[in-house]
Design brief:
It is built from 7 helices and 7 strands; from the N terminus they run βαβαβαβαβαβααβ. The protein has about 260 residues and is an alpha/beta fold. It has a single domain, classed as Rossmann fold (3-Layer(aba) Sandwich). The protein has a 7-stranded parallel beta sheet with strand order 3-2-1-4-5-6-7, with helices on both faces. α3 packs parallel to α4. It is globular. InterPro entries: NAD(P)-bd_dom_sf, Sc_DH/Rdtase_CS, SDR, SDR_fam. It holds the Pfam family adh_short_C2.
Length: about 260
């Protein structure tokens, strides 16, 4: 096991899905800065994955970092990856990877909706099944799911995406109850709008969207990553089954203004 970044304490290994860019990249960097060894998955961005690995190895030469190409929309690809890592011990799992699909509920395409559910929900359950037993045997582990405020509030055009994130929330709460006595915490982080490439298709609406957020801006990826980092820390050992919105006050606001 590699030494932590300060050279004093042993590193704990964390798996992050979708860690090559955007919020995932910020989470990977936050984990490494806290002294964790990090394994992350990527799919469509091999160049960015390699860049992220180079950044980590340069900044934290005593750490251990790996990147694996995994197509979370493909059950066979996930099973192959789980078989590769199931004999290894991970202290943490951060399920960050996600697939968006915008559609009105009445005209939702089932194939595209099922693809979103596979990436957002079913891939998480398969990865957790492969890792959580070793966590419970060690009586130590952290699982953080990156959900969405859309799991908490309805929005027009997000029926499939919202349903997948709501399914994750139900799963997190149950898994938290089932693992709490064995030293494993499981929590649901619910970001609002984050300033990443995922929102690029909505650039024309950026200013209007920001005007509806009480904080008046989108979140920086690092602001979400910092919370994930805390949930992985010893200080978060009594937080489990929690839903933690990080949305600039969006879900606290009544969306009708005088």
């Amino acid at each position: 096991m590699a030494a932590a970044a300060d050279g004093k304490t042993p590193a704990r290994r964390v798996l992050v899905t979708g860690g090559a860019r955007g919020l995932g990249r910020a989470i990977v960097h936050a984990m490494a800065a806290s002294g964790h060894d990090v394994t992350f998955t990527y799919n469509a961005s091999p160049d960015k994955a390699e860049t992220t690995l180079e950044e980590l190895r340069t900044a934290y030469p005593n750490g251990a970092f790996e990147a694996h190409s995994v197509d979370l929309s493909d059950r066979g690809s996930i099973d192959e990856f789980v078989s590769l890592i199931e004999d290894e011990t991970f202290y943490g799992l951060v399920h960050n990877a996600g697939l968006t699909y915008d559609s009105l509920a009445a005209v939702m395409d089932q194939d595209r909706a099922e693809a979103a559910m596979q990436v957002n929900f079913w891939s998480m359950t398969r990865l957790a099944a492969g890792l959580v037993r070793r966590m419970t045997r060690a009586r130590s582990g952290r699982i953080v799911v990156i959900g969405s405020v859309i799991a908490l509030r309805g929005t027009i055009g997000n029926s499939a995406y919202g349903a997948s994130k709501a399914a994750l929330l139900g799963y997190v709460r149950t898994l938290a109850l089932e693992t709490a006595r064995r030293g494993v915490t499981v929590n649901f982080v619910a970001p609002g709008f984050i300033d990443t490439d995922m929102l690029a298709p909505y650039a024309d609406y950026h200013q209007h969207m920001e005007s509806q957020i009480p904080a008046g801006r989108f979140a920086a990826p690092e602001e979400i990553a910092n919370l994930v980092d805390f949930l992985m820390s010893p200080g978060a050992g009594y937080i489990t089954g929690a839903v933690l919105p990080v949305d600039g006050g969006l879900t606290a606001a009544i969306p009708v203004h005088r």
